[in-house]
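Incident review: delayed structure delivery

Summary: a single-chain prediction request sat in the queue longer than the usual turnaround. Root cause was a stuck worker, restarted by the on-call engineer. No data loss occurred. The affected request and its eventual output are reproduced below so the record is complete for anyone auditing the incident later.

Affected input:
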Amino acid sequence: MKKILVASTALVAVAFAGQANASEKIKLSVGGYMEQWAGFADEDNTAAGGRTNAFQSDTEIHFKGSTTLDNGIEVGATVELEGETSGDQVDEQYLYINGGFGQVKLGKDDSAADDMGITAPSVGPVGVNDGDMSNWVNAYLIDTVRSSGDQNRLTYYTPSISGFRAGVSFADDSNRNGANGYDNQSGSGDNIVSGGLEYLNDFDGWSLGLSATGEESGDGAWYGAGVNVGFGNFTVGGSYGHTEDDYGLSDGRELDAYDIGVSYALDAATVSLTYGYEEVDGEGDISAVDLGLAYALGAGVTWKSSVYWFDQSADSTNTGVTDLDGDNDGYGVVTGIRLDF
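Output delivered after worker restart:
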């Protein structure tokens, strides 16, 4: 019996090896995007570090490739190279495996919570929720999906079943996952566990997107939810996020944020109007509005513009948090081109 089992195992191994060898070697394709923006801003509190720059840019080169084994399993890789950065030259790099079981990703990537979080519709280059407003003015960054960013982690997504999909991510405590260097293996960091549940479906004349996401690190956590409803050319939605005061990324502050917005698409143009608000417990609050435009000029070429306004208020007991440093309000305009290749 043992000989039969060994022989059977050997045959299975040989068969799988034959299937793997029959597939083609992975060849990487080149893609990515380039964004070039010009704008101006007027704000009250320029002494606190108000941005006076007139230009911003963001460029990434993506190398992607995959192969499908004879057993139907797809194996691939993604490497994203930053066009300009003072930190890591490589933004994200991970391996993925797709099959009837779902998807497994291993490498430096966003968490399942970050990937699955739904926020209010917004098409402009600035935005009010985890956008680029702080690149142009001295404003605190509103964020309802406050994830840990790109980390060396393992992520699993279930298959989509009737519109439902779940995901979970785990990053260990080696401290090789922080944004400031990858040379500490002392285990002095915190394990990061992230998860999400989403529902995406199209119906007769309308669509629905729902998400519930969260992340735990150390003794604290953040969690949130989002919804988008599409009907005709309109999409309406919003999101909410709460961060506990003992979550590592909040620096001892309890955070509550939400956004709400609407977009309208007509032929090559889409416009959006989005409002965001965040309260930083014991420090202050900020509200912001963004009117955005995205116009497809051609294949992979989009003109985008934002007109935005913000009002930031610091409590009298504010201890001088870096990003919420005093009262400030103002407005600005940004326009430019995004190329996708």
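Verification: The chain is about 10% helix and 55% strand.
Action items: add queue-age alerting; document worker restart procedure.
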